[in-house]
Amino acid sequence: MRLLVTGGAGFIGANFVRQTVADRPDVRVTVLDALTYAGNRESLDSVADRIEFVKGDIADTALVDELTAETDAVVHFAAESHNDNSLADPWPFVQTNIVGTFALLQAVRRHGVRFHHVSTDEVFGDLTSDDPPFSELTPYNPSSPYSATKASSDLLVRAWARSFGVRATLSNCSNNYGPYQHVEKFIPRQITNLIDGQRPRLYGAGHQIRDWIHVDDHNHAVWAVLERGAAGRSYLIGADGETDNLTVIRMLLAEFDRSPDDFDHVTDRPGHDQRYAIDATRLRTELGWTPRYANFRDGLAATVRWYRENEAWWRPYKEHTEDAYRKAGERVLPL
Ligand code: NAD
Ligand code: DAU
Fold this sequence. Notes:
Layout: E1 2-6, H1 11-23, E2 28-33, E3 52-55, H2 61-69, E4 73-76, H3 83-88, H4 91-111, E5 114-120, H5 145-164, E6 168-173, E7 176-177, H6 186-195, E8 201-203, E9 209-211, E10 213-214, H7 215-228, E11 234-237, E12 242-244, H8 245-255, E13 264-266, H9 281-287, H10 296-309, H11 311-327
The protein binds nicotinamide-adenine-dinucleotide and 2'deoxy-thymidine-5'-diphospho-alpha-D-glucose.
Pfam families: GDP_Man_Dehyd
Keywords: Lyase, NAD
GO molecular function: dTDP-glucose 4,6-dehydratase activity
């Protein structure tokens, strides 16, 4: 099987590529990645001689057409993925997440290629503490420029499946954690602050809830959908990992033997979504998927170890990332 993986130098995509090379020697992987600030070829070093890497933009229609003509399936991870960046400058999100997905859909339509679209639970907006978790029947109601562009791309995929018969599936996953995640994101940012002897930075009071899943569990689910998912159908991916941000910070502080109150409250994110939670019944019952990382605390401890042991991977990004947060106006709050 020939597989084209877009965004394969990013966090989830690179973990997907390494997992695929290890578990499925029969799959020939080509990565298409623009190597934006979020892409890192070093995340693929261990498999570099077993894959083909193409540096390019998913919105480049000629390149996408050429690569799609030579593949059996596309797994589409490439995106602008960070909410805070989408608030500072939404344009790259419109261009990559909407126009880029459109270019891929036109190519798979032309060549009759199987397509899997990797999306997010944020397309559903947020929940109150009393709401039931998101399911495949929850209406779309995105809050941020990031989630609005992901929702737009999902709707394009659905339309191309229905109107043009494209063999497309979608998955909407909750927050991932694990190795090789950019230091702009919540968990790696706090781990690397702690490694540097700094205080973690919590947005507002930290009562927002995310439904954490290990990146390897997400990627096993993507394979389950790719192999056994029904065309035109969406699958929600989550591992019952609901935890509020304050608790995550305190779990990390404990890993570093620091006091539970040794952190800063900083400026909250505008429009901050309160709670995400996933009901993954369809994925579990129809496709037989179960998560392997049942314990978030253990997965978090393994992630801390990874960042301690792989400083050379993240160090070049740290200072610039913190600088960007400062320039965006992040301030310590007197709480
Ligand atoms: P990431 O930001 O770490 O990686 C994105 C990758 O896409 C990078 O390698 C980047 O270089 C590449 N890319 C960006 N624009 C491109 C373009 N125009 N052409 C080609 N490549 C381009 O993102 P991630 O966290 O790995 O997320 C991957 C996908 O999973 C995204 O679609 C995201 O919406 C979705 N998702 C992420 C999470 C999460 O918790 N991180 C959860 C659910 C869904
Ligand atoms: O739910 C899936 C989504 O999860 C994905 O679609 C996105 O690509 C991914 O980035 C993630 O979005 P979030 O906005 O939830 O993730 P982030 O890591 O930015 O923040 C997680 C929570 O932590 C959120 O409530 C904001 C908070 N936070 C974040 C940072 C960076 C802090 O309290 N402090 C911080 O320094």
